[in-house]
Amino acid sequence: MLSGLLIVLLPLLLGYLVSVPALRWQQRINHAVNSAVYIILLLMGISLAGLENLSNQLAKLGGNALLLFSITTLLNLVALWWLSRRVALKAGQSPVVKDAPTSKLAAMQGSLLLVAVVAAGVMTGLLAGPRFGEGLFSTADLLAEWVLYGLLALIGCQLRNSGMPLKQILLNRLGLAIAVTLALSSLLAGLLAAPLLSLSWNEGLAMAAGFGWYSLSAILIGDQLGPLMGGVAFFNDLTRELLAFILIPLVIHRHTALAIGYGGATSMDFTLPVIQQHGGVACVPIAVVSGFILSLLSPPLILFFLSLSG
C-alpha cells in the first residue's frame, strides 16, 4: 500500500539530504524548479486534451474546483478569524517595500502565467492529437512522471537550503499556530467535499492538502488520480493565491493572522511581498514560518493520503 508513497517520496528525501551552501547553485536550483513546474503543467495540459468529451470534462473540472474552493475558503476564513481574535498580532504601519508588487495584476502575473502554460498544453494536445494519436498522451504522462521525480528532489534540496532552522520554526509559536489552523481547517474541508466530488475520504484529504501550493498539488494529484482531478487541485489552490492578493491589503490591519494564513504555503514566497508591503516587516518572519511549515507538510501528506487507496 505504501510502495507508491515511498517511490515518490524518496526523491524528496534524497534532495533534502543535499546541502548546497553556494548561492550560485541555489539560484540554479530555483530556476530548475520553475522550469520543471512549467514543463509538467504543459504536459498536464496535453493530457487534459486527451480526455474524451473534453468540453464536458472541463465544465466538470471548473465546477468541482469551485465547490472545493468554496468549502475550503469558508472553513479557512472562519478558523483563521477565530485565531485572529485570540492571538496578540497586529500589523504595523509599513512603508513602501522595495521590489514589492506595484499592483495586484503585477503580483498575479506569475499565477496567470501558469494558467497560460496549462492552456497552451491543452491547445498543443488538441492540435497534435489527431496527428500522433494516443501515443502523444501516454508519452506526456510518462514524461510528466519522470520530471516529477526530478522536481521533488529539487524541492527537497530547496527546503534543506532555505536557511530556516528547525529551532527557529518551532520557537515561532504564531507562525506554527497559523500553519496548524490553516492545515486542519483545509483537511476538514477536504473531508466534507469528498462525497460531493465523488471521491473517497482519503482522496478528499489529498485534494485539500495542497495548502495553496498549486503547482505541486496539481502534479501529485494528477499523477495518481488523472489530469482531471489534477486540474481541480490546480485551480483550487491557484484561486486561493489570487484571492489572497486581494484579501491581504483589506484585512491585514484588523485580522493579521487571517491575512497571513489564508495564503497558505505561498506566504513564504509569492504572497510574502504583499504581506510585507501592507503589514510591515514584523509580519515577515511569521509569514515565512507559516508558509515553510505548510510547504514541508504538503508533499508527504498528499502522497500519504493517496497511498491509502492502494
Rg, rounded, reads: 19 Å
Largest sheet descriptor = none
Poorly predicted parts: 93-102
Distance between the termini: 5 Å
Instruction: Give the helix/strand class.
Output: mainly alpha
Rough outline: globular
Mean pLDDT: 81
**Number of DSSP E strands:** 0
Tally of contiguous helical segments: 13
Tell me the series of helices and strands, N- to C-terminal: HHHHHHHHHHHHH
**Strand coverage percent:** under 5%
Assign a percent range to the helix content: over 70%
Task: Describe the model.
This protein has 310 residues and is mainly α. It has helices spanning 3-16, 23-49, 54-84, 104-132, 134-160, 166-171, 173-193, 201-208, 214-225, 227-251, 256-262, 272-279, 284-307.
Which terms would index this structure?
globular; 310 residues; single chain; mainly alpha; 13 helices; 77% helix
What's the structural blueprint in terms of helices and strands?
Layout: H1 3-16, H2 23-49, H3 54-84, H4 104-132, H5 134-160, H6 166-171, H7 173-193, H8 201-208, H9 214-225, H10 227-251, H11 256-262, H12 272-279, H13 284-307
Could you give a quick summary of the protein structure above?
This protein has 310 residues and is an all-alpha fold. It has helices at 3-16, 23-49, 54-84, 104-132, 134-160, 166-171, 173-193, 201-208, 214-225, 227-251, 256-262, 272-279, 284-307.
